Amino acid sequence: MSGASVFRAALARDAGPALGTWVKIPAMEAMELVALAGFDFAVIDLEHSPMDLETAYRLIGVARFRGVSPIVRVPGLDGGIAQRVLDAGAEGVMVPHVDTVEEATAAVSATRFPPLGERGVGATGRAGAWGAVPRDEYLRYGREEVVVIAQIESATGVRNAAAIASVEGIDALLVGTADLSVSEGRTESDPVVAELVGLAVEGGRRAGVPVGNAGGASAAAVRASIDAGFGFTLLSNDATLLGAAARAAVEAARAEIDG
Known about the structure:
Layout: H1 6-12, E1 18-23, H2 28-37, E2 41-45, H3 53-66, E3 69-73, H4 81-87, E4 92-95, H5 101-111, H6 135-144, E5 147-152, H7 155-159, H8 161-165, E6 172-175, H9 177-183, H10 191-207, E7 211-215, H11 219-228, E8 232-237, H12 238-258
Parallel strand pairs: 1-2, 1-8, 2-3, 3-4, 4-5, 5-6, 6-7, 7-8
Helix pairs in contact: 2-3
């Protein structure tokens, strides 16, 4: 690939947090609808969805064609999945459950070209425009434009957030409030969880790295994300958004019929 990252450009805007959503439905139409809605980025979820790598590959292609940044959340670093989705043209990789500097370093190693990491060169795939992009530009894009996002999902990760964010090659953090709250035996609205989230945001700020969250698809949720200092936020997911729209349509129709 060449040029500049759409995700990085969205982060650099002064207009507030970059807006994204999760894509869990294994269909190209889901990504196309997300792009047409105007999201800045979409996170293709290989951790909590049934989709396979070939489907992710197709979704990445649709996202790039429609101008939305494709980020892939991998289930882990085993099996070279991170390298394969980057070869497929993903603008970045999100790695779940990063609790330590060592785990952050492993994420960087799997996603960065030497000398920083150990990602192999695959310039004849989509990431290199099937060999049409000059090698120097292909490598530059992988080193300077591709993003690596570490998910903070435990109290240990929160304590280490500043150190994780300071690892060279980590570009952003995402606070996974659901797993964080469950790991602490609390609800997401618990003040203790809110304090932990604030500490993670502060850790990223100290390291000069943006921190994001997964919130709801409402004005109130976005306002809460802005007030909390998040640099990017995920507004629900494709399946939930579809379900909510369908439910609202049926409820409106039944109310009219009953009325």
